[in-house]
From TrEMBL:
Mode of membrane association: Multi-pass membrane protein
A single GO BP: proteolysis
Subcellular location: Membrane
Residue ranges constituting the Peptidase S54 rhomboid domain according to the UniProt record: 41-185
Family membership noted in the UniProt record: Belongs to the peptidase S54 family.
Transmembrane segments: 6-23, 44-67, 73-98, 105-126, 132-153, 165-185, 191-209
Gene Ontology molecular function: serine-type endopeptidase activity
GO CC annotations on file: membrane
Cross-referenced InterPro entries: Peptidase_S54_rhomboid_dom, Rhomboid-like_sf, Rhomboid_protease_S54
Protein name: Rhomboid family intramembrane serine protease
Annotated source species: Lutibacter profundi
Chief place of localization: membrane
Length: 214
């Protein structure tokens, strides 16, 4: 497929910043999400950390997923609304992480996962019957089932602090992508109402009772 120039620019920015961070620890530490530094006023880290990655596998996975899902949104809604969704989800992921880990001054994170999670969710709302593979299931499943499973797993992972994964950023990004898609494309209510409701219920419950996950 022909890749949009703005999408290509975002991917290249991620690649170049991440490669710089791999070899320059001072650069990496200066721009990563670090709770104590952000609370001292370095809010720019909430943006810059989303262009850094832990290693090449982390980078490649995020950029591949973005490359697959972003065109669904760009073709349907245009580049401006895609950018609103991407950076809005990025910010939502950072804000949710900031809220959930605010008492952990040494908490740190990097990666575009929050933004990418928002793009995945928005794409699923636009095309809920797309077929996706969720490990370890060997067969493709409908997008709306994938989205629900992804959300529930992120909630569980955040509660149990599973692995070296920023589940809170994934969750915040997914919520951001969901909410912003409803805002910029309200037609989704008539086109995919059942999916909007199905994916919205756990989000509403999380917002109401999320404090109990801490």
């Amino acid at each position: 497929m022909n890749i949009d120039k703005i999408l290509l620019f975002i991917i290249l920015a991620n690649v170049l910043a991440s490669i710089k961070g791999f070899s320059d620890r001072l650069f990496f530490d200066k721009y990563k999400f670090q709770m104590g530094a952000i609370q001292r006023g370095e809010k720019i880290r909430m943006l810059t950390s989303a262009f850094l990655h832990v290693d090449y596998m982390h980078l490649i996975l995020n950029m591949y997923v973005l490359y697959i899902f972003a065109p669904i949104i760009i073709i349907k809604l245009g580049i401006v609304k895609f950018l609103i969704l991407y950076f809005g989800s990025l910010l939502a992921g950072s804000l949710f992480t900031l809220y959930f880990h605010k008492k952990e001054l040494y908490y740190s994170a990097v990666g575009a996962s929050g933004a990418v999670a928002g793009i995945i969710y928005a794409a699923i709302l636009l095309n809920p019957n797309m077929r996706l593979v969720m490990f370890p299931l060997p067969i493709p499943i409908p997008g709306y089932i994938f989205g629900l499973g992804y959300l529930l797993y992120s909630i569980y992972g955040m509660k149990k602090q599973l692995g070296n994964v920023g589940h809170s950023a994934h969750l915040g990004g997914a919520i951001g992508g969901y909410a912003l898609l409803l805002l910029v494309y309200p037609e989704v209510f008539s086109n995919s109402l059942n999916t909007v409701l199905l994916l919205g219920v756990p989000i509403v419950l999380l917002l109401l009772f999320g404090h109990k996950l801490k």
